[in-house]
Amino acid sequence: MKKLSMKSTIINFVVLFIVFGILIVLCETGILSNYIKGILMVCCISIIMACSQNITVGYLGQIALGGAGFMGIGAYTAAMITKAMASANILVGDGAPDTLRFLIATLAGGILAAIFGVLVGIPALRLRGDYLAIITLGFGEIIRVVIQNLKFLGGKGFSEGSAGQALVGINRIANLYVVFWVMVVSVALMFTFIRSKYGRAIIAIRNDDIAASASGLNVTFYKVLAFTVSSFFAGIAGGVFAHYIGSLSAASFGWLKSTEYVIMVVFGGMGSLTGSVIAAISLSALPEALREFSNYRMLAYSVALIIVMVYKPTGLLGTYEISVTRLLNRIMGKKEPSLHAIKAEVEASKASEEDKEVQ
Amino acid sequence: MLRVEGLNVFYGAIHALHDISLTVNDGEVVSLIGANGAGKTTTLHTITHLKEAQSGIIEYNGKDLRKAKDNTIISMGMAHVPEGRHVFRDMTVQENLEMGAFILNDKAVIRKNMDMVFEYFPRLLERRRQSAGTLSGGEQQMLATGRALMSNPKIVLMDEPSMGLSPLLVKEIFKIIKTLHANGITVLLVEQNAKMALSIADRAYVLETGSISMSGKASDLLKDENVKKAYLGA
Question: What CATH architecture is B1-77+155-234?
């Protein structure tokens, strides 16, 4: 869990640019159909969501089931902002202006989701385990129902009792290139967060909250912090989703959606962001890839889940992170420090101490 | 240094601690002995804010600890080694120790404290890149103790350090407490192993179903007939 060195940061970015280059080539030459581009977009959204949920579920070790609610807050906020900006004719136009408008709105969506994360997190995180799962599920549903009934979001008002219209006419200004980088930046930020002192504190709390508080950590603060960061990125994912799909209905942010992302986290490994990335891609792409077998595809999805849970209960990667740097090192034949090397080092340091004593 | 007076603690309707009063002076080793469920751990938890007191005074170097914020206690120089070897299982030994210095920002100081801990526990140096969950029970106890020392405390509250350890390891842990004492660190030691605890302490308190039944010099208590009968098995 060492901090990323400069070298591996550069390596990671080189790899990302290569991936992005391939993506551009595939798109511009028309090899990727719009349908595939859509799937890739969904994959990016799922990656952001799964990683964000991993922060609470995996790293903090608290099962929270309200993720989709925060995604909904982000989605509706961002959609309302781009709509308002469009009607005020601010930053409208193909290319850079639309992209900028999309980014501003998405960021605002993330921020509002984070604010709600704090408000929900403070009371909810006093509980743990199944109680926390239930209370976050409840909060998620409250958010959904409120959105469903708010008049300016297409609802009929709270006294009406029936669901309103979907929020339509959102500019579909999320293009794959921008979404790709939004995803990359989000995941990179989450990585940095987890590797920071704050991330360390969060993992410490998952391991042992008594020891954490004995070490002077403000346990409640770090729990709420993790939940807030998680909500922020769920909001970002929501903002991207809104501008990809073009119309929003509150029903798509129910608890089933939350569960879907928690499944991705469990599938990929609780406490592994790269695991979440892999799980998000495979679990979003799998149902699409199996479209030919229409009726059986959900069966295949379930079977895949069961197989992983039976043979690898910690998820695909457990808490292991895939590292390109490590892979390169292995290819180049550089070894990681073995136990033997550590022993030698210890011996050396002991010997030097003895030297000092002799002097 | 530490003064507790008239402390009352409840778990729901159960009155766990009745008017507990004790003092720990600078540089002393004070033992708190008693049977299972007597309230020893509760006393420590109340001092370090893991449990709230109903009434009473907890004063540390003249400051009211009951009003202090939870996470400032350690920066006031009071470290707590919780009962039952609480270590961060997924982290390496070194990372565990770094967590103990979480409140410190000066890297040079952290480095210095870590060297000090490795001097106390050479075993931890050997295993510093191993994850804490794979350590043996004794090593985990050493790690928990070492982690508490990382904040450079003036007083260490130790909760049942001998629990579940082999007699040989118990001796080793107690040797460490003696060394701490010799280095001027104050220790409040909670123990079931009364013989060991009394043999290294300056003074001791005997806790019986939530109230202090006896107190005095450890060497006197070691000779006391009642203590012998109840706790020393002689």
Answer: 3-Layer(aba) Sandwich (3.40)
